[in-house]
Write a structure and sequence with these properties.
mainly beta, five-stranded antiparallel β-sheet, 4% helix, 26 strands, 40% strand
Length: 397
Amino acid sequence: MRYIYIYILLSFNPCISQNLISNGDFETYTSCPSGAGQLTKAVGWTSPPNDDSEYLNSCSTNPNYSVPNQNNYSYQTAHSGNAFIGIITYNWFGSNYREYAQKQLNSQLVAGLFYYTVFYVNIPGANYSGKYAINNIALSFQANYSITNNTVTSNNVLSYSPHIFKYNNPIIKDTTNWVKIEGVYQATGIENYIVIGNFKDDNSTDTLSINGSNYPGSGCFIDDVSIENITTPQWQYRDTIVYLGDSVLIGPAITGLNVDWFDMSSNFIKNAPGIYVKPTVNTSYQATEIFNSAVYNHTVNVTVLPPLKVDEYDKLQNSVRLYPNPNDGNFSLRFDGLTDGNVEVSVSDITGKEVFKNTLSIVNALTLFNLDVKNGIYFVKITNKGNSIIKKLVIQQ
């Protein structure tokens, strides 16, 4: 990347084997990033010739590539540690421009074995990323050191098979939280490398405009890549709730799984890692997963709640203003249109730890806050009459 407008853990059971990707958290480096296109400063990571993939680290001598504040163009903490990378996933200098990140595995994959693969992505803020959020962000296993001028097509897209991607391949649009992408891959025994990026051309990539940027591109930050051999399932089939009239996704929803779904009368529904259901009463579903030649049976219970009062939620969402943002811990909440009842305000950090909580009586429309917390991203939850909304808060002293 040559410009400022960059378009750019998983709880494991202790029995899982060692991570096959060294420096998957990008914390080990040869020197601190000082400019654009310095992915190779993250030890072991490479990119194609003429590829400007980024390395960002809190030690950067250039504020544009620092963590967590990218010179006020974006604000993003690392998923863990102090570093992550950034790549272009859609457009840039011309149609179909792409950037990729590549890394050699610590050892070649073994034919027939299953590998649980995880990486985290985040879409940078408006001034740092471009106009769009996209789908197709994926990881591909390859046999050789494969990113060269000869393997990049004339339109810059590597035509590799995407092996690990988010289930159903949705558009990833979260600019605040790190999004977990996970999947299970059964090796053929020739795999020595991984490549991360968008392996589809522009016509095969879905886009969603998420900000007012004029630049027709997109990119993502990447952190905490993990690949581990597993012999038994490490995921769960959790019970859940759904509001009457809505649908909900049940199951682990991890790409690469072989799961048959049935209703409680043993009627087959679908083979998929997860399914959307829309029950009208409390309902249970059966899942039969075949993994590594063993059969695992699960029951998922879905509790149906009364319909959400959308009109009251919309009223609360439109009534609350938080400003200024970012701030140094001093900010205001304004409750325009809320005239009665109490408002519960809680503030949590990105790990979910609550750092503030108070219940306010709506006497006037304005309340001042002074939080004594560290710099970072926080979430302010405002609850009134049983409805809750969440506002993002950036502390930057």
